From TrEMBL:
It comes from Phytohabitans flavus. Gene3D superfamilies: MetI-like. InterPro entries: ABC_transporter_permease, MetI-like, MetI-like_sf. The lineage of its organism: Bacteria, Bacillati, Actinomycetota, Actinomycetes, Micromonosporales. GO terms for cellular component: plasma membrane. This is Sugar-transporter integral membrane protein.
């Protein structure tokens, strides 16, 4: 009995050590190497690289492309997070049924989340290009006189990317809010109905406070996902037109692999990491305090 328990404990310890080793190798080590690189002028085209201190970080203060990418990324993150979570709540309420057809629709609602970002980008690109499916449909029914540049102007491209990301993230937010709704005790809804609390009033006074933990998870992960977004934008617009839809992650990749400025790219990556951490901690803290007050 004792030996069996000891072997089980030893197996769990081995798995824990393996998990810790993988975490150190694939997360902590690359992070430390990138941090070290951010203090150098590392360039793969040079034989040697020099330590330059904080020069990369000082350069960021006057980098117009970096500033524009941060503004675009933050604007997109806030807009998409609000829209995706609003849709997630609405879809979760509609799909919170036990019938087989509703279970099928839940699966369909989550489908965008499991698709590769590259595939999503290519599919939506064929829909939104000048001669794409959307313009063909709208012009054929007379809603447009000529094709509209959905990806060809800065404002329209921002909105188009926002719609695509909202569509993708709504699958995740729907599942989170469905799980939160199903954890609400049935007795609470029954008591609210007996007290004459119905419709939107019951949602506001009973359901919404009870799904507050789900809101915290959904909002935080949605924000982080958009802040580090690269693949969908790279395929959909390539950062254009005129770099107006260049996310910070896309700018980092271009600095590293197009301009060969690995040192400066690492410094920008450290900035994005710090920004994401601050935003995530601030939002999580605010939503946690909201959970207590509701």
């Amino acid at each position: 009995m004792f030996s069996r328990k000891s072997r089980a404990d030893g197996g769990l310890a081995l798995l824990a050590a393996l998990a810790l080793g993988l975490y150190l190798i694939f997360l902590v080590l690359p992070l430390l190497l990138s941090l070290r690189s951010s203090f150098t002028n590392e360039n793969p085209l040079r034989a040697t690289n020099e330590f330059i201190g904080l020069r990369n970080y000082r350069e960021m203060a006057s980098d117009v492309q970096l500033r524009d990418s941060l503004v675009f990324t933050l604007t997109l993150a806030v807009g998409v997070t609000l829209a995706a979570n609003a849709l997630g709540v609405a879809f979760a309420i509609l799909l919170n049924r036990t019938h087989l057809s509703y279970r099928v629709m839940r699966t369909l609602a989550f489908l965008p989340q499991v698709l590769s970002g590259v595939i999503v980008g290519f599919v939506w690109q064929t829909i939104l290009t000048q001669d794409g499916l959307l313009n063909n449909v709208l012009t054929s029914v007379g809603l447009l006189d000529e094709p509209y540049p959905w990806l060809g102007s800065p404002r329209a491209a921002l909105v188009s990317i926002g719609v695509v990301l909202t569509w993708v993230l709504s699958g995740f937010t729907t599942v989170v809010y469905l799980a939160a709704l199903q954890s609400v005790p049935i007795e609470l809804n029954d008591m609210a109905t007996m007290d004459g609390v119905r419709g939107t009033q019951r949602f506001r006074k009973v359901t919404w406070p009870m799904i507050a933990p789900g809101t915290t998870i959904s909002v935080t992960i949605s924000l982080i996902t958009v802040l580090k977004l690269y693949d969908i934008i790279a395929v959909l617009t390539g950062g254009g037109p005129a770099n107006s839809t260049q996310s910070t992650a896309l700018y980092i990749v271009r600095l590293a692999f197009t301009s060969d400025r690995l040192g400066y790219a690492s410094a920008v990556a450290m900035l994005l990491l710090a920004l994401s951490a601050v935003v995530a901690l601030a939002v999580t803290g605010a939503l946690r305090r909201r959970e207590v007050t509701l």
